Amino acid sequence: VQLQESGPGLVKPSQTLSLTCTVSGGSISTNYYYWNWSRQPPGKGLEWIGYIANSRSTYYSPSLKSRTSISWDTSNNHFSLQLSSVTPEDTAVYYCAKELLGVADSWGQGTQVTVSS
Description:
Layout: E1 2-6, E2 10-11, E3 17-24, E4 33-40, E5 47-53, E6 58-60, E7 68-73, E8 78-83, E9 92-100, E10 103-107, E11 111-115
């Protein structure tokens, strides 16, 4: 399975960040897969954002829950991240990943998102 992130590289403060992760080589609706988003701000460690499971259930990091929404589109085999009311502190490289049995075994290459006016 291969994953590829896409979306705007620059977002203005207070706007909504929207990213898509396109999945190839496998179906997004396969049982037992969890589709995750994470990010790495400059000079910091990896931060988990949330996931969507094949049952369409979602779970988000408590620190980001109020601003986060993850959805999927089975017809186009992709899943998406929306993060609202962004600030410069949301500047990071954003990654999508497939998780199976607690292990994130496939990752996208990451996409840089900068929040700036």
